[in-house]
Amino acid sequence: MPPQNSSKVPPAENGKSVQYGQWGRAWQVDWFSLAGVVLLLCCAPGIVFFFVVTCEQYQCSISHILIDVFSGDATLGSIWEQTPSFSWMVVKIYCIWVVFQVVLYMYFPDITHKILPGYAGGVQDGARTPAGLINQYQINGLQSWIITHVLWLLNAKYFHWFSPTIIFDNWIPLLWCTNILGYAVSTFAFIKAYLFPTNPEDCKFSGNVLYDYMMGVEFNPRIGKWFDFKLFFNGRPGIVAWTLINLSYAAKQQELYGYVTNSMILVNVLQALYVLDFFWNEAWYLKTIDICHDHFGWYLGWGDCVWLPFLYTLQGLYLVYNPIQLSTHHAAGVLALGLVGYYIFRSTNHQKDLFRRTEGTCSIWGRKPTFIECKYYSADGTPHKSKLLTSGFWGVARHFNYTGDLMGSLAYCAACGGGHLLPYFYFVYMTILLVHRCVRDEHRCGAKYGEDWKRYTAAVPVRLLPGLF
Fold first, then answer.
1. What's the pTM?
2. Do 45 and 187 sit in the same domain of this protein?
3. Does 89 fall in a domain?
4. DSSP character for 158?
5. Does some domain include residue 1?
6. Contact by Cβ (8 Å): 110, 121
7. Last residue of some domain: 325, 342, 363?
8. Which of 439, 448, 457, 409 lies closest to 32, judged by CA?
């Protein structure tokens, strides 16, 4: 039986009760949340399949596939028959890939932090969990990314073990493999939470099987001391593969047309900047919502294995089928939008990280930072103090880092021109995701900080975009 919630009675502050470690994922599920879970479980795999098949069979034209289906010129059966099937050869390739990333993660302790100034790698502490625990993590994502890409480039230039287009050439068979892994990992984590959880005090059982399967029960499922499911699957193998997938797209464009377009180069460069930023700041990532507050379930397990590598790379896939050479002004505008968005994203996160590391004894925009003093409680009733920054970009909006992220997302899509809707799915999705994160994060913070959170929102009334949201 899952553990019951604590029966402790929280203390009262200013006549209002304070919650013990109740922030994060929901304890109880309403019908609206359950409907959303069922919708995602049923539709998300189909959405990925739809976009990939639309590119493979209809040159990435959503309108053409819909016209054919609704006019009767094509049926779901005929589309399925033309879709590349499951391949044991590709299963072997994918297993080699995943095992290779596990080996890099588990058995190659980080040395890059000893070489690269300013990079924080090696063993790092995570944030305090709702139960009051602080986990340690082996940060070596940048090292794994470098090793992987050096081997990829050496193969392309010297060894020729496999074609640089191998990922594109097996894209749909790889879709079956990633789905198998995504469902297997999610199901294992769900069963593990009942039978042998890593930290039982950080498990959350809502009483609804579908919700718990999707949103996760265990906060930090682990095997042994260092194999952390959330850190591995959030960063490896999906995000390491992101830049390799784009390189494979560029190689395919070169193979098909004899050249690589400036739009493909822009997508590769801008998305590689984002990926490298992720790994350079992997220690900082331990303090973000994915690691700090989300539990590990289908949402992260399947999402990191399937949704991320297949839908975050739609722009490059589109450009293989629709090579676009942008004008100089268009290319410069896309590059500027992407770089400005990245600057806002990185600067905003840097300000928060600097404020945390120095405990407020720093300078932001040339001034001593302002903040709101907060108090919260872990599940054992222990009080903790925190500070919420109200200076710099964090004084402009409560989630201004998301604003920069959205600008970068739009730049990736704008690199594909305006001929089709498909490349812009990523921007639409990211907008929905980040707006939802704003709401979800603020609900969590409201439960965590209580009246102190109201003081913070009064000091910084804008959530995402001044004048809009």
1. 0.89
2. yes
3. yes
4. I
5. no
6. yes
7. 325
8. 439
